Amino acid sequence: MIMSQRQRPFTPDSRPFQHALTVDVEDWPQSSLDHALPVTERAVTNTRRMLELFERCGVCGTFFVLGRLARKFPDVVREIADAGHEIGSHGYSHKPVFQIGPQEFTQELDYSVKLLEDITSQRVLGYRAPDFSITNDSLWALDILADSGLTYDSSVMPVKMRRYGIDRFPREIHRRDNGLIEVPLSAIPLAGSRWPVAGGGYLRLYPYRVTARAVRHLQAEGLPAVVYLHPYELDPAELDEVQFPVTRRTRITQGTGRRHIESRLTRLFDEFRFAPLSEVIPSDLTVGVQPSGCRQHTVPTKERVPTN
Ligand SMILES: [Zn+2]
Q: pLDDT tens digits for 53-69?
């Protein structure tokens, strides 16, 4: 039985209200066009660009790193961890969970977690499925994640979309019967439906004021927003430079807003407080979880004490 946030207040401790900042670290052509493609240096350049942005804004997040990228480019994984960010697993191949089945999922999970822990010498606590591919057809994956000893999962979009999502899935952070903590992606109720907000394409395609209003709505409900990003979203030139045909639909869904995402994120970090995902999980759910190595947190402009 899942206890909802309405039955139990979200902040049983005295921490200031924080939203979760997460990044799925991968290479766009390999993750989105063809899983057989090599992971390229471009993903590393874009990841470093994101690290620089976060450092400039004084914010820490959780980076769910794809195993194939970590194996080829371990140095950038070390750079992420050394900057104080939390490292999580994004699987190994980026094939959807419902496509690979339990056996291959377990192999990918075990291999990718061990790889990340060997590279960073830090324990991996969390997992995010490629393309939010834990759906009603692959809920078995949550039991495998619990059996593997991970603390939390953040893979379920609580809205039924074309390729992913689960209708009527709890929107609150909750502990499953198997002990795993589930941190659903953000969606807000509006006009009788739920609408995904605050991440990826939704962050790029909606005007800033819509995202900010959605984050305020979540905060008023006592729910942290779970912002998710990809390093390639900071790379506006990519779609014109890749050596593959890109359809008009892909150009719109994957390319629109890349040029504006950096300024949009800067505004978001200035208005709201963000932290790694493991730090926004209510403390009564996180017994035994070590805090991340985050050494900095965003302090929104309005909370800053004037120095002159
Ligand atoms: Zn991904």
A: 999 999 999 999 999 99
Residue 64: give the domain boundaries: 19-303
4 occurs within a structural domain? no
Task: Tell me whether residue 5 is in a domain.
Answer: no
Q: Is residue 238 part of a domain?
A: yes
**Ligand 1 mean position, distance from CA 155 (Å):** 10
Q: Which residues surround ligand 1, an ion (CB under 5 A)?
A: 24, 26, 31, 130
- Expressed in angstroms and rounded, the spacing between residue 130 Cα and the centre of ligand 1 is 4
CATH number, position 219:
3.20.20.370
In the chain, the amino acid numbered 201 is G
DSSP helix, strand, coil percent of the chain (3-state; round to 5): 45, 10, 45
Mapping DSSP to helix (H, G, I), strand (E, B) and coil, where does residue 181 land? strand
Q: Could you give the number of structural domains in the chain?
A: 1
pLDDT at 244 (0 to 100): 80
What is the pLDDT at residue 162?
85
Label residue 1 by pLDDT band (50, 70, 90): very low
Does residue 9 lie in a domain region? no
Would you mind telling me the total number of residues written for the chain in this entry? Answer: 308
Give the single-character DSSP code of 199. B
Cα(220) to ligand 1 centroid in Å equals: 29
Look up the pTM and report it: 0.90
Distance from residue 122's CA to the centre of ligand 1 (Å): 22
